[in-house]
Amino acid sequence: MSGGRCAAFDHQRLLQMLTARDGSHGFLCPLDVRTIACKIVAGGRLLGIAFFQIDERHDCRSPAEIRKMRELLKFVVHDTVETVLAEVERGMIERMRDELETSRKVERGLRSTLHRMARAIDETTADPEAHEHADLVVNRMLEYADSLYCRPIGLAGFAERTGMNLSYLSHLFSVKMGMPFRTYLRRLRLDRARHLLSDPMQRISEVAYAVGYTDPNRFRLDFKSHTGLAPTKWRERFAADR
Fold first, then answer.
1. Residues 134, 114: one domain?
2. Distance from CA of residue 118 to its chain's centroid?
3. How confident is the model over 75-100, as pLDDT tens digits?
4. Chosen domain end from 96, 121, 146
5. Residue-level pLDDT at 92
6. Range of the domain at 79
7. pLDDT tens across 129-143, in order?
8. In this structure, are 188 and 75 located in the same domain?
9. How many domains does the chain have?
10. 141 and 206 share one domain
């Protein structure tokens, strides 16, 4: 602790305290009040500054007593920091425990769904009647897509119509057709769009809506990905080949 009279706890005094090895600094203010400032540090970061003052005009303490009080102040600050850190750590541990439990619940749910799907597929493969039923269900999904592709449909709508499990239907279609239902539906729509684009009187947006797209820009991206050409370029090439 260093002494000396200063006009105020200014930037110079603050710098002296912050750079002190023991993290504290002592000085006398103009009113002869001895002030001990101690840094509050946690995790290498300065959280604040604690002050302890002794009015030497009315409190005649020996230098040894002042040193003890200074050490007591540092102990209180240290204990406060440790308590705060312990509370923060406890909160982090509780949040991590809750997140882990949530992840485990999700994992158990996924495992349960996969087991049910696996049993359903095994039963379908082992039982000829179940195999025929699976083929019938897939055919109904194909008919659903072929007849309603011009509307904003999806497999969820078919599942709702038939009262069947969406995950089971999705897995069954992928196994039987070698592609997800949404991929089949997208290819079906784009193949129909190629025929409609042969009519130069129809605008690109009209073709997109006619094959079930709600966003013409999405249609343009899918069409180029499917054919390698943008709809307008494909139409120009088609017209040139006629």
1. no
2. 30
3. 666 666 677 677 777 777 777 777 76
4. 121
5. 74
6. 1-121
7. 667 888 899 999 999
8. no
9. 2
10. yes
